[in-house]
UniProtKB/TrEMBL annotation:
<feature type="domain" description="Radical SAM core">
    <location>
        <begin position="4"/>
        <end position="214"/>
    </location>
</feature>
<dbReference type="Pfam" id="PF13186">
    <property type="entry name" value="SPASM"/>
</dbReference>
<keyword id="KW-0411">Iron-sulfur</keyword>
<keyword id="KW-0408">Iron</keyword>
<protein>
    <submittedName>
        <fullName>Radical SAM protein</fullName>
    </submittedName>
</protein>
<dbReference type="InterPro" id="IPR013785">
    <property type="entry name" value="Aldolase_TIM"/>
</dbReference>
<keyword id="KW-0479">Metal-binding</keyword>
<dbReference type="InterPro" id="IPR058240">
    <property type="entry name" value="rSAM_sf"/>
</dbReference>
<dbReference type="Pfam" id="PF04055">
    <property type="entry name" value="Radical_SAM"/>
</dbReference>
<keyword id="KW-0949">S-adenosyl-L-methionine</keyword>
<dbReference type="InterPro" id="IPR007197">
    <property type="entry name" value="rSAM"/>
</dbReference>
<dbReference type="InterPro" id="IPR023885">
    <property type="entry name" value="4Fe4S-binding_SPASM_dom"/>
</dbReference>
<dbReference type="InterPro" id="IPR050377">
    <property type="entry name" value="Radical_SAM_PqqE_MftC-like"/>
</dbReference>
Amino acid sequence: MAASTLLKFAWLEVTGLCNEFCDHCYADSGPKGDHGTMTVQDWASVIDQLADMGTLDVQFIGGEPTLYPHLSELIQRAHERGLGIEVFSNLTHVRDELWDSFRNHGVRLATSYYSDTAEEHDQVTRLRGSHRKTRANIRKARGLGIPLRGGVVAVHSGQRVGEAARDLLSLGVPQVGGDRARAFGRGSDGAVPVIADLCGHCAHEKCAIGPTGDMWPCVLGRFLTMGNVRAEPVADCWYSARAAAVATDIAAVHGGGVQSCTPPQFLPMCGPCQPCVPTIGHCDPKEADAPPATP
């Protein structure tokens, strides 16, 4: 149960705004999204509370987190509090001040990638030129010595996922993994979200906090609210009876698989578009003993 475990990792979804409009977006974010009701002071307080709780790592996500105007400020706050930091970005819109922030505060980057061809990649993102911009910023990150991971998500039948993985490797991305599109947000195509389509590792030493302050077991499990950090402290949400009930419900569906994959296999934890290390090669804990996937 959540109440019996340390909260080691948190996704901080600082915005629902995104310059892309991917068909499979679990957050249903896009150009019409906004930054929600969490203020920069709210986020700074969350970061402080997480550090005080012994949390090790945070990942800033969205939407597209680089579109959040206070991202550099929050990165600095997390760095000052000793948290490991990763930013999950589509890498199409990185301001100079953010590159400086990434370098100065030891930030790791992660990005999604859909094809080795611009036409297919841009078809998924619905943003013309996104393939070119992402590739250019992958090269820039590598040139600046910023650690970078890549994830290839299978969205469409016949998609060039293997070629996409090899393309990332050719760009010097040292860690490339993948996942399938899951039935959440726009990816659900109108279906009601269910626990069975989660990876099963949700709420185990991790949580997500969204733009309105809601706490979820992971960014995909936003239909399972564990509390709200604007209404009560982060620790009270995490150690609440409601959070414990959510963790119990997930374990009831996934059984022992909820514990099958633990760090360091997941870096820093499991999640959408976040690749496993090559020895795992997939993001389904129930298949943890299966041979690694190959591009």
